[in-house]
């Protein structure tokens, strides 16, 4: 029986650590023996940098601007441990839709049957999660991704972006769109951060896949232009990323989340804000935070 390609989309608010998390998942899956392609879908085109020693690679849209017809292999580059790296790219500054690169790149690879040719186990789309419209919604809307995961901290704007993604998944699920695998809690160091994420996933009827703490090891690795998996393979942070990759590899059933309305999300956030102020002022027992 032919092996089944698993396509995954990882969304997250800009600056939340989405590309760092995605690249370490790709690296961990590759080290585990899988053939992986990481598909950068952010117009900044920096998704695959740490898989390639800090190097930027020509994007699909940049290459198309130079010549009208290209082969998919013109925009595929090898990275750490043989990982295939692709950057969809974006339009010239101030011109056009930033999501166009995703649409163009996906169509190019589909037409030329690249995934089948390379006999991949995983294609991991790294997608900007501040917006879920146009090209950015393609992995969800078209059902290209089998499972969607979102990276979020306990900060309100990160949770807000995750909730917007849930709305998109909920909408497109009725027409065969991709479903949600769960939330990857990033930069989870303070106990209340975990409690906030736990409460949010309970309210939206989803789950936490893994908690990833903020770590200086990640910073040290990225300053070398590497993932933590490559630069510090025996570190505690690398073990966490490997465990996250294992859980994603074993994940089979994704679901439709239950996003909150804006008023509900604001009310929920205000409740947490009040509780954290009381905690800071010593009015609230820290033990009570986890029971909110």
**Which architecture of the largest domain per CATH?**
3-Layer(aba) Sandwich
SS content category: alpha/beta
Mean pLDDT: 89
Biggest sheet character: 8 strands, mixed
Helix-strand sequence: EHEHEEHHEHEHEHEHHHHH
Percentage of β-strand residues: 15-25%
Give the number of helices. Answer: 12
What separation lies between the terminal Cα atoms? 49 Å
Give the beta-strand count. 8
Instruction: Output the CATH topology of the largest domain.
Output: Rossmann fold
In short:
By secondary structure, the chain is an alpha/beta fold. The protein has helices at residues 18-31, 60-66, 100-111, 114-118, 138-141, 156-172, 191-203, 216-223, 228-231, 236-250, 262-280, 286-289; strands at residues 6-12, 36-41, 77-78, 84-87, 122-128, 147-152, 179-186, 208-212. Strands 3-4-2-5-1-6-7-8 form an eight-stranded mixed beta sheet, sandwiched between helices.
């Amino acid at each position: 029986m032919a092996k089944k390609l698993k396509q995954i989309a990882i969304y997250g608010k800009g600056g939340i650590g989405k590309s760092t998390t995605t690249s370490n998942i790709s690296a961990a899956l590759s080290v585990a023996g899988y053939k992986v392609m990481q598909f950068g879908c952010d117009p900044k085109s920096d998704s695959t940098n740490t898989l390639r020693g800090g190097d930027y690679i020509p994007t699909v849209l940049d290459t198309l601007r130079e010549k009208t017809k290209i082969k998919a292999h013109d925009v595929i580059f090898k990275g750490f441990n043989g990982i295939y790296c692709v950057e969809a790219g974006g339009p010239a500054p101030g011109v056009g839709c930033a999501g166009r690169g995703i649409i163009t790149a996906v169509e190019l690879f589909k037409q030329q049957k690249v995934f089948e040719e390379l006999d991949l186990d995983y294609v991991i789309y790294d997608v900007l999660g501040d917006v879920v419209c146009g090209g950015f919604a393609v992995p969800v809307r078209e059902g290209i991704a089998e499972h969607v995961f979102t990276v979020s901290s306990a900060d309100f704007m990160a949770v807000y972006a995750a909730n917007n993604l849930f709305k998109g998944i909920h909408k497109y699920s009725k027409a065969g769109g991709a479903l949600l695998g769960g939330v990857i809690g990033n930069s989870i160091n303070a106990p209340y951060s975990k409690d906030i994420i736990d409460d949010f996933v309970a309210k939206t009827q989803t789950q936490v896949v893994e908690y990833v703490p903020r770590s200086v090891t990640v910073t040290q690795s990225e300053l070398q232009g590497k993932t933590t998996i490559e630069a510090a393979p025996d570190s505690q942070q690398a073990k966490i990323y490997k465990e996250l990759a294992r859980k994603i590899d074993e994940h089979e059933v994704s679901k439709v989340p239950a996003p909150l309305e804006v008023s509900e999300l604001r009310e929920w956030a205000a409740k947490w804000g009040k509780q954290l102020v009381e905690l800071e002022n010593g009015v609230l027992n820290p033990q009570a935070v986890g029971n909110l």
